[in-house]
Amino acid sequence: MAHSQQTAPFDYVIFGATGDLTMRKLLPALYNQLRIGHVPEEARIIGTARSSLSRDEYIIRAREALETFLPEQHKDAELIERFLKKVHYVTLDGTKSDHNWDDLKAVLDQSPADRIRVFYYSTAPQLFEAISENLHRFGFITPQSRVVLEKPIGTDSASAKAINDGVSRFFDEKQIFRIDHYLGKETVQDIIALRFANPIFNAIWSAEHIQSIQITAAETVGVEGRAAYYDTSGALRDMIQNHLLQVLSLCAMEAPADLEADTVRDAKVNVLKALRPIPEDKVASETVRAQYVKGEMKGKPVPGYLEELGEDSHTETYAAMRAYIDTPRWKGVPFYIRTAKRSTKKVSEVIVTFRKSASSLFGASAASNRLVIRLQPDEGFGLALNIKNPSAAGFDLQHGAMSGKFAPADGSLIPDSYERLMLDAVRGYPALFIRRDEVEAAWAWVEPTLKTWAANKVPMAHYAAGSYGPEEARRFIATTGDSWHEDMAD
């Protein structure tokens, strides 16, 4: 995915600029890109939101956000002031055609007409079409414009199609950048490097040598301030349909001919389209859904999901699915995808379990090799190999571990995923964004499960807050002879 790090002058217009995402992620990301020299001096950031604020009042909020969310080693008082001089604010309801659009025009008109404009929709997706229509109505969309769409792109296939159709009325597909911040993670991109830059893995990356692949994203937090959103979404929509299916596609795709955007996305969408459908009568055996109940974390009691929500709900906080990819490379190999709230630890990782050696030389003492790709935290990889147990009287084996870090050679911090993605939109480089056919293929695969769960045709399991998940998930994975990574003997 090599391309120039230089960017032309741009105007970044953020809708929803007073929201948590803008303050926690977007402004710090743009600041860090300025810090390392990727943002030109002429660039501007224009925040818009319904909140009635002056520019000075917004600057105060932006400064507080940088002080709060930037790593200490990245804070530079002089640079922060230089960054804030680029920040503007317009009070604007993007869905209303009679609301302060002249004020936005006055700011944009200060730049050359051919300047790159990025419109970032950090809003609810049902607002995307209306904002796009108003941008078109007032002549703000130019050939040099791009639009960044935050997830979720819909709640099912029909709503995703409606959102995509609505935005596509005003923007060409090449101008639309559907963001999935997982793809911006440097460690997720390392899956491509590990697979295709290392012959030792590339040569054995198939059903002939791989027994199974697990993809896990677990969090220790509950729903907290996102309860209203989360209860309409759930774990399957929130994490599996987008983030984890993207990780799966990188793990399973065929080698692209090059690292150009559509070449990589073609390879990914081929995987998503090859996912074996899970019909309604198989959902109970191929999936697990669960809610956390009260438990204990770090010695302190933790309430259950329903207690936090304050009402009854059939929304899952844990989801696990078994996927098969019907291609020659992956014939018969199960991919296990799971996500959880209130897990015992925060971790995102890929576990590749290789088949045991067919040799009878060492008998039952030879265990499976495992490759662990840690996406976060403690970003890096580990490889479990069979070595001789030096304390054994005979020639018994034990697992020995090799490990490495995904860390910059200069010792600096791994960049936040939004840093790369925000400027890739400026550059017009869409490889790490989701193409429309990827969205559609992902929804097509998960939707039968969503419908079956919504009809309560699969029992809701339960697990204690602070645990790895429900006992049902252990029985589920055992039906194909596997175990979750935390249950494997080292």
UniProtKB/TrEMBL annotation:
The keyword Glycoprotein does not apply. NADP(+) binds at R50, K151. This is Glucose-6-phosphate 1-dehydrogenase. Substrate binds at H181, K185, E219, D238, K341, K346. InterPro entries: G6P_DH, G6P_DH_AS, G6P_DH_C, G6P_DH_NAD-bd, NAD(P)-bd_dom_sf. Its EC number is 1.1.1.49. The keyword GTP-binding does not apply. NCBIfam families: zwf (TIGR00871). It comes from the Bacteria. GO terms for molecular function: glucose-6-phosphate dehydrogenase activity; NADP binding. Residues 193-485 form the Glucose-6-phosphate dehydrogenase C-terminal domain. Residues 13-189 form the Glucose-6-phosphate dehydrogenase NAD-binding domain. GO terms for biological process: glucose metabolic process; pentose-phosphate shunt, oxidative branch. It comes from Bombella intestini. Catalyzes the oxidation of glucose 6-phosphate to 6-phosphogluconolactone.
